[in-house]
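re: ur question from yesterday

yeah so i grabbed the chain u mentioned. its 154 aa long if i counted rite. heres the sequnce exactly as i have it in my notes:
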Amino acid sequence: MPQWQRDGWQALLASKVYSDGDRLLLTGDADALFLELNLPSGERLDNDSPVFVRRITGKPGLYEATFLRSDAFQTFERKTVAFGRHLAAVGDEMLLKAASGDAAANYAVALSCLSDEHGPKVKAALPYLEAAARRGHLEALVESALIALLWKES
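ran it thru and got these structure tokens back, copy pasting raw so excuse formatting
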């Protein structure tokens, strides 16, 4: 098995790139799923570039993505955070901070999951609450404890 696979990277198979307002949308198959992942605003890639993704551990809906990008003089590798459309409302800056472990950003993502217009996504919110709580975010600590207590009782 090649090192990139041991590191958790997967080719995004049958990948396509679409414009989705001010950002790009990547689609394709990985993790035995069809993925639709947004890139941060302003991020660009070559349409025929191979795309590789890997889940960010403990961050449902967040992925690392790597691909090729060219200009008139060179082609270079680019790595960024990609995210499910349901997380786009949190904002690029918060998602990038959450991916790097920022407590307040993880809490913001958790609140977004809990206030989803299609109903609260408690299972998706918990890892973000726990990550924020581990970094000392008091509200996240209280809310994760309450959710754990309520889930235990139900």
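noticed a couple things. The longest strand covers residues 75-84. also The CA atoms of residues 66 and 153 lie 43 Å apart.
anyway ttyl
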